[in-house]
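Backbone shape codes:
===
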Amino acid sequence: MKKMLAVLVLASLIPGVAAAAVKTYQVTGPILEVNDTAIVVQKGKDRWELARDKDTAVDGDLKVGDKVTIYYRMTATKVESKAGKKPGAAKETKKP
């Protein structure tokens, strides 16, 4: 019975461990623009536009000119697969 309980507890933790494995990145710079759906910051000579939504945690007020650090993850939204050559596939040769 105790073994069964231990297995169930461990199994319930596995999805959380997998989600925690997603790498988090950050960008720091002054805010150029801010609205309900995006925050734009300047990093060096580059302009970074990051999407945000109602679930984005914000510490304090965001104002143009304020220096901020934004933490983000890269998430695929769509994947298109193109058929390619299979590894090890024999090449066709023309016979004379």
Notes: Helices lie at 2-20. The first helix runs from residue 2 to 20. Residues 23-75 form a domain with the OB fold (Dihydrolipoamide Acetyltransferase, E2P) fold (CATH 2.40.50). Strands lie at 25-34, 38-43, 46-51, 67-72.
